[in-house]
Automatic annotation (TrEMBL):
Residues 353-438 form the Apple domain. It comes from Zingiber officinale (Ginger). This is Receptor-like serine/threonine-protein kinase. It is an enzyme of class 2 (transferase). The chain crosses the membrane at residues 456-477.
Length: 826
C-alpha cells in the first residue's frame, strides 16, 4: 500500500518538476518568429518574440532574460541551446520590460533602446562610409555590419566577434590587432543571472613572449597563466583544445597577436568559457543528455595558482612537498615556507659568467616559467644555438626552445628570476627547460640529484626539531605550575580534573555583573557573556540558568569532557566557577563569534572566501578526528552545527558546546539512547529514527556542515520549492554533474577541483547507511590528497521536521530512481 502510494506520488511530482523546469526556461524560449538573418535600417527588431536566424539555422539572435532575471538583453545563442547565450550586446544596460528595440541606423550603427524612450541603452561603435548598410547574423555566430551583400570579413564595418563577452566560439579571435589597439578578451558574467562583467578576464599579454592569462579584479592581478605558445598549445594549457578535433592557431606578427581554434569537422558544438569563479573551461554540447560536458578546465590544481612558490622555486603537486627550490638554489626564509606566502629562493653560488664556466641544468616536463621578462627568437634556431646565445649573455638565466611542434626549434631566453615554474611529472605535458648554474653546483647536482631537496629538508628540519623541543619543555613547565595552582572543585573532584577555579567576584567584575550588553548569546544550557579579566585577557562565561534542570547534567558533562581535551580546533576551557548557587564555565574568548553568524549573513559572508572556508572545513575535520580517535577518551559530540563552531581572530575554527557529548568505551561501536538530543537538520537518519548513535552520526553532521559552508545555505528550511532541503538539492545537482552551481556567490575565486572534492566528501558523509560513511581519519586524508575518492552512493536523505512532534513522521527525499521527487511516508 505504502509502496503504491509512493509510486503514484513519485510520478506526479516528477511531472510537476519537469513542468516547473519548463516554466523556468519559458523566460528564454518563447515561440519565435524568424525575421530572416539580417537587419536593415528602418526595420528594427522588437522584443515580441521575433529573432534573427543565421542562414543555415545554427545561430539565433534576439532578446532574452538570463536564468531567474526578468531583465532583457540582446544576445546570440546556438539555436538549439537557447539557455546558453554566447554573446551579449547590452550587458551593462539591460532593458527593464519587453519594450526593447534593436535597430540599425542609416549610417550602419546598431542601437538598443526602449520603445518611446530617447536614451540609448547600447550602441555599436560609429560606422561610417556605408551606403547600404545591413547587419547580418552569420552561421559562425558572428553578427556583422557590412555593405549589403559583401561577405568579405575583412571589410566588415563592425562585428560582434571583435567584442566577445565570456565565450570564445570556433573561428573567433582572442587577442590583439596591434595596429589599431583592439584587444579582444573574454570577461566572465557577474553571476548566472547577470551578464554584467564579472571579476575574471581571459586575454593575451604582449610583454616578452606573449602569454595567455586570466586576470582577476579591476587591478588585473594575474590569477592563472596559460604561458607562451609552444607551437602546439599554450605551455600551461595542454588539452585546451583537442588536436584531433580542432585546428588551433596562434599568430604573432608585428600587426597582430591572435589565438583562435576551428573545427576540423564542423558538426560538433564546442566553446571556451570563462566562469565567474575564475575558471576557464572547454565545453562540448552533448545532444544526447541535452547539456554541456566539461572536457577541460583550469586552474586544475594548487600549482596552477600564479607564483604560489615564489621566485626560483618549482611547484609539483605530486612531489613530496608542493614547493621546492630550483636545484642550486636555497630557500630565502625558512620560517615562511608555505605555499601561499613564499619569499622564494636565491642562488647558492654566484654565477661565473665572465670566465664562461657556467653550465645548464635541465628540468624535464616543465610548464615554462613566466616569459614576461624573456626575449624570444622564433627563427629556426636550434637548441644548441639557443644555448650558445644564452651562455654569451650574462643576463640570460635560462633557455628553452620556443616551438616544439615538429622538432625543438626557436629560442626563449629568460633575463631575470624564474617565476611560476611547475613540473608536470608523470602526468605528461611540458617541455625541457635549461637553468643556468655555476659549474661546480652542477657537478654537485649530478653527484647527488636530490641535494637541493635534502639541504632544504635539513634547513627546515633542524630548526623545527629545536622548536619542538622548546615547546615540549615549555609545555611541561607550564603544566607543573598549573597543577600546583589547581583548586579542584568538590563536586567534580571524583573526576580528577586539572581545572582552575575562578572566584565569583572575579567573574562579576569581568562581566560587569553580567551586564546585558555583554551577553554574547544563548549556549546549550544557559546564556553566554563576554568578559575581560584584570590582566586584559578576554573570556567567555557560560552561565547555567537556574531554571534549567537538564542543565546541571549537561554542565557536569561538559566540564568532565572538555577539561580533558586539548586541541587547536577545540575551544579551550580556562576554568569554572561554582559558588553561591552559580555554576559557570569560563572559556577563551573567540572574537569572531560563531560560524553561522558569518555564513548566513549576507554582508558578513563576503569575508569568508574559499581559502578561509576550506581552512575551516579542514580545521573542523581535525578537531573531530581528535575527538573520535586521537584524544585519551573517545568522544561523540552529538550536536555539531554551525552555531557550535567558533572562530578565533585568525578564523581558526574551534568546536564548542560539549553539553550533549558522550564518551564511549573503546569496544562500544554504537550507543542506544533513550532520549534523542541534537539539532534537526544535522541529525543522521539512524539517530533520528532508531535513537542509535555512533561516531558516524557525527560524520553525518560534519557532512551537512561542509555542504552548508560551501553553499552558504542552511540545510533546514525550504530551500527551493521542489526540493525539501539542501542535501536533496545538492544530491540532484551532483548527479547532473552541476554541483558547482550550489557554491555561495560571495565565495570569490576558487579551485574547481578543491570545491568538487569537498562537495564529494560532504556527500559521502551524509550517505544513509552509517557503514558507508567514511571515518574522520579517512575524511582528513581525503581532504588533503588528490587520490581517488569513492563515489557517494545515492540513497534516502532524511530531513526531520522539527515542527512536528513525532520524529518518525518524516519527509523523505528519494534520490534512488527519480532525482527530484518529494514524498511523504506514513
Ligand atoms: C513584432 O513587431 C514587428 C514590428 O512591429 C511586427 O512586424 C511583428 O508582426 C510583431 N510580431 C508579433 C508576434 O507581434
Ligand atoms: C537542432 O535541432 C534540430 C531538430 O531538433 C536538428 O535537426 C538539428 O540538427 C539541430 N542542430 C544542431 C546544430 O544541433
Ligand atoms: C535602459 O533602458 C531602460 C528602459 O527599459 C532604462 O530604465 C534604463 O535606465 C536604461 N539603462 C541605461 C544604462 O541606459
Ligand atoms: C509608445 O507610445 C505610443 C504612443 O504614445 C503608445 O501607443 C504605445 O503604447 C507606447 N508603447 C510603449 C511600449 O510604451
Ligand atoms: C558617434 O558619433 C556621435 C556623433 O558624431 C558622437 O556623439 C558619439 O560620441 C560617437 N560614438 C562613439 C562610440 O564614438
Ligand atoms: C587592424 O585594424 C586596422 C584598423 O581597423 C585594420 O585596417 C587592419 O586590417 C587590422 N589588422 C589586422 C591584422 O586585422
Ligand atoms: C589550420 O589553420 C591554419 C590557419 O588558419 C590553416 O592555414 C591550415 O590550413 C589549417 N589546417 C587544417 C588542417 O585545417
Ligand atoms: C620570514 O617570514 C616570516 C613569516 O612570514 C616573517 O615574519 C619574517 O619577517 C620573514 N623574514 C624575512 C627576513 O623576510
Ligand atoms: C674567473 O675564475 C677565477 C678563478 O676561478 C676567479 O678568480 C675570477 O674571479 C673569475 N672571473 C670572473 C669574472 O668571475
Ligand atoms: C643580453 O640580452 C639583453 C636582452 O636581449 C640585451 O638587452 C643585452 O644587451 C644583452 N647583453 C649582452 C652582453 O649581449
Amino acid at each position: 500500500m505504502w509502496e503504491l502510494e509512493l509510486m503514484v506520488q513519485r510520478s506526479v511530482s516528477c511531472k510537476l518538476s519537469t513542468f516547473l523546469l519548463h516554466l523556468l526556461l519559458a523566460g528564454f524560449i518563447s515561440p519565435t518568429i524568424e525575421a530572416g538573418n539580417s537587419l536593415i535600417p528602418g526595420q528594427p527588431l522588437y522584443d515580441n518574440g521575433t529573432t534573427l536566424i543565421s542562414s543555415r539555422g545554427r545561430f539565433e539572435l534576439g532578446f532574452f532574460s538570463p536564468a531567474s532575471s526578468s531583465r532583457r538583453y540582446i544576445g546570440i545563442w546556438y539555436r538549439n541551446i537557447s539557455q546558453t547565450p554566447v554573446w551579449v550586446a547590452n550587458r551593462l544596460s539591460p532593458i527593464d520590460g519587453r519594450s526593447g528595440r534593436l535597430s540599425l541606423s542609416g549610417e550602419g550603427t546598431l542601437i538598443v533602446t526602449a520603445v518611446n524612450s530617447s536614451t540609448i541603452n547600447w550602441s555599436s561603435s560609429n560606422v561610417t562610409g556605408l551606403t547600404n548598410p545591413e547587419a547580418t547574423l552569420f552561421d559562425d555566430g558572428n553578427f556583422a555590419v557590412r555593405e549589403a551583400g559583401n561577405d568579405d570579413p575583412d571589410s566588415f564595418a563592425w562585428q560582434s566577434f571583435d567584442f566577445p563577452t565570456d565565450t570564445l566560439l570556433p573561428g573567433m579571435k582572442l587577442g590583439w590587432n596591434v595596429t589599431s589597439g583592439l584587444n579582444r578578451q573574454l570577461t566572465s558574467w557577474m553571476s548566472a543571472d547577470d551578464p554584467w562583467p564579472g571579476d575574471y578576464t581571459l586575454g593575451i599579454d604582449l610583454q616578452g613572449d606573449p602569454q595567455l592569462f586570466i586576470w582577476s579584479g579591476l587591478q588585473r592581478l594575474p590569477y592563472w597563466r596559460g604561458g607562451p605558445w609552444n607551437g602546439l598549445h599554450f605551455s600551461g594549457a595542454l588539452g585546451m583544445v583537442d588536436p584531433k578535433l580542432f585546428n588551433a592557431t596562434f599568430v604573432v606578427d608585428p600587426h597582430q597577436v591572435i589565438y583562435s581554434f576551428n573545427f576540423l569537422d564542423p558538426s560538433p558544438i564546442s566553446v571556451l568559457v570563462v566562469y565567474r569563479w575564475g575558471s576557464l573551461r572547454r565545453l562540448v554540447w552533448n545532444g544526447g543528455s541535452g547539456d554541456w560536458s566539461v572536457v577541460w578546465s583550469v586552474p586544475m590544481d594548487s600549482c596552477d595558482t600564479m607564483s604560489v612558490c615564489g621566485v626560483n622555486a618549482v611547484c609539483g603537486v605530486n612531489a613530496l612537498r608542493m614547493c621546492s627550490c630550483l636545484s642550486g638554489f636555497l630557500v630565502n626564509n625558512v620560517s615562511s615556507w608555505n605555499p601561499s606566502n613564499s619569499y622564494g629562493c636565491s642562488r647558492m653560488s654566484p654565477l661565473d659568467c665572465g670566465n664562461g664556466t657556467d653550465e645548464f641544468f635541465k628540468f624535464s616536463r616543465s610548464k615554462l616559467p613566466d616569459t614576461s621578462m624573456s626575449v624570444v627568437d622564433r627563427r629556426s634556431m636550434s637548441l644548441d644555438q639557443c644555448r650558445e646565445s644564452c651562455m654569451k649573455n650574462c643576463s640570460c638565466k635560462a633557455y628553452a626552445s620556443s616551438d616544439i611542434s615538429e622538432s625543438e626549434s626557436g629560442c626563449i631566453m629568460w633575463m631575470g628570476d624564474i617565476t611560476d615554474l611547475r613540473l608536470y611529472g608523470d602526468t605528461g605535458g611540458g617541455q625541457d627547460l635549461y637553468v643556468r648554474l655555476a659549474a661546480f653546483e652542477l657537478e654537485d647536482e649530478i653527484s647527488n640529484q636530490s641535494s637541493g631537496m635534502s639541504r632544504l629538508a635539513v634547513m627546515i628540519a633542524v630548526p623545527a626539531l629545536a622548536i619542538f623541543l622548546l615547546v615540549c619543555i615549555a609545555f611541561c613547565v607550564c603544566r607543573c605550575r598549573k597543577r600546583n595552582n589547581c583548586v579542584v572543585v568538590k563536586e567534580i573532584e571524583e573526576e580528577d580534573l586539572d581545572l582552575p577555579l575562578f572566584d565569583l567576584a572575579t567573574v562579576l567584575i569581568a562581566t560587569s555583573n553580567f551586564a546585558a550588553e555583554n551577553k554574547l548569546g544563548q549556549g546549550g544550557f544557559g546564556p553566554v557573556y563576554k568578559g575581560k579579566l584584570v590582566d586584559g585577557q578576554e573570556i567567555a562565561v557560560k552561565r547555567l540558568s537556574n531554571t534549567s534542570t537538564q542543565g546541571i547534567n549537561e554542565f557536569k558533562n561538559e566540564v568532565v569532557i572538555i577539561a580533558k581535551l586539548q586541541h587547536q580546533n577545540l575551544v579551550r576551557l580556562l576554568g569554572c566557577c561554582i559558588q553561591g548557587g552559580e555554576r559557570m564555565l569560563i572559556y577563551e574568548f573567540m572574537p569572531n563569534g560563531s560560524l553561522d553568524a558569518f555564513l548566513f549573513d549576507e554582508a558578513k559572508c563576503m569575508l569568508l572566501d574559499w581559502q578561509t572556508r576550506y581552512n575551516i572545513i579542514v580545521g573542523i575535520a581535525r578537531g573531530l578526528l581528535y575527538l573520535h580517535h586521537d584524544s585519551r577518551l573517545k568522544i561523540i559530540h552529538r550536536d555539531l552545527k554551525t552555531s557550535n563552531i567558533l572562530l578565533d581572530q585568525c578564523n581558526i575554527p574551534k568546536i564548542s558546546d560539549f553539553g550533549l557529548a558522550r564518551i564511549f568505551r573503546g569496544d562500544e561501536m554504537e550507543i542506544n539512547t533513550r532520549r534523542v538530543v541534537g539539532t534537526y537538520g544535522y541529525m543522521s537518519p539512524e539517530y533520528g529514527m532508531n535513537e542509535i548513535f555512533s561516531i558516524k552520526s557525527d560524520v553525518f553532521s560534519f557532512g551537512v556542515l561542509i555542504l552548508e559552508i560551501i553553499s552558504g545555505k542552511k540545510n533546514r528550511g525550504a530551500y527551493q520549492s521542489n526540493y525539501l532541503n539542501l542535501l536533496g538539492h545538492i544530491w540532484s545537482l551532483w548527479e547532473e554533474g552541476k554541483s558547482l552551481e550550489i557554491v555561495d556567490k560571495s565565495i570569490g575565486s576558487f579551485l574547481e577541483v578543491e570545491v568538487t572534492r569537498c562537495i564529494k566528501i560532504g556527500l559521502l558523509c551524509v550517505q544513509e547507511r552509517p557503514q558507508d560513511r567514511p571515518t574522520m581519519s579517512l575524511v582528513v586524508t581525503m581532504l588533503s590528497s588528490d587520490n581517488a575518492i569513492p563515489e557517494p552512493k545515492p540513497g534516502f536523505i532524511v530531513a526531520l521536521d522539527s515542527s512536528n512532534s513525532s520524529i518518525r513522521k518524516q519527509y523523505l527525499l528519494s534520490i534512488n530512481n527519480v532525482s527530484n521527487t518529494t514524498l511523504e511516508g506514513r
